[in-house]
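Q: Here's a chain of 426 amino acids. Please give me its 3D structure as tokens.
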Amino acid sequence: MRRVKFSVADRRVWADYALVFVGVFALAIGWIARLYRLGFPPRQIWDEIYFPVYARDYLNGIPFFDLHPPLGKFIIAAGMAIVGDTSVGWRIMPALFGCAMVPLAAALGWYYFRERAGALLLATFVACESMLIVYSRTGVMDGILLFFMLATFLAALLVRRRGQILLPMALFGLAIAVKWAAFPLVVPVGYVLWRRGFLKPFLLTLWVPMVIYLGVVFLGQLANPAGAGTAFNDNSVFTNVIRWHRQALVNAAKSVPNLQASPWWSWPLMVRHILLFYQEYAAGKVQTVFAVGNPLVWWAGTCAVLAGIGELWWRLVVRGRPIVDHPLMPIVLGYVCLFLPWLPGTRMPYIYNYLPIYPFAILALVYWLCRLWGYRWWGAWVVVAFAACAVAATLYFLPLTIALPIGQESLSQHLWLESWDRAVPN
């Protein structure tokens, strides 16, 4: 019998099909993991002792002080108002934003890389990133922040006319109104708009995010007119806005020691995690909510950023070629600029502070995988294998991230590094 021969084009088509299958499977796993038994644990874990409590205070008109702007708490409060003041109510809005982040990542991958492989890979990695799953299942604001940051960057890529700049500027204002950590995003967004010929309109519309941000803070003071104790009493709302900023800046610089804190330089290496929840049972089983990243995506992303910096340096210094329009430039700028505010070490940082930076590491990883995708016929299959292994890693760590019962021995097998083991009670 005559052997059937497959052309290079045929092999590439089958690789396309395989990557679509991996992407759809990752989407299903990511959404299920974000929503399955969302109400467990039925009590507050980690920073849920703050943000759902503040959201409840907004709903009940109880005075409080928090150093973060109010938008994230408004969104959590909306979920509590609809679902109820329960563990599901605390977490439903972060979970929905986490689910929406996956198609948003697909759109960002398509418009940034202009390749179907780029869209599928970025969506796959966002869907199956264990750390993002954990923070989508917890009543905190980090996933909400990440959604607005990705939406801002995508909107900047979509600008074709001057009037369209208002959308990324408005989204940027909403991102800042969740956490100040989004401020450095203005650099890669501005860079993208500059290279598209919209630098002047960008600079002229910087007032838009500031107005939106101040408007959200103003609404926060209206909803919480007494502020923090007597320090904010007997003042107008406008005065409270100023005083809130002063107090927030003071509190943001405070350093509160915690055994689960980690220095900024350790975040790309993922040497220390946060144990949000731990419970033992008499049968030798344990349940955990362990904020561990997907090791394959996390460490490969770090390597991709370093390779990107090296690529830009080689192109500029050694080969003497321009790099201003290189696709790695906005990625590296975003990664570096979002990292810079943490270098002075004025407050106690945690690995979740890396989450606004992390998407740019994933973008760098997708860039290199797209390069490999177009390199001979086998390059595409290497990319498919990498994506499949990333999904497999998510499945491997899934019991730790969504509190599925596992044995002590199995838990020990999942703690690959000694520094990971320190986070778990002995």
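Q: Can you summarize the key feature?
A: The two ends are 64 Å apart (CA to CA).
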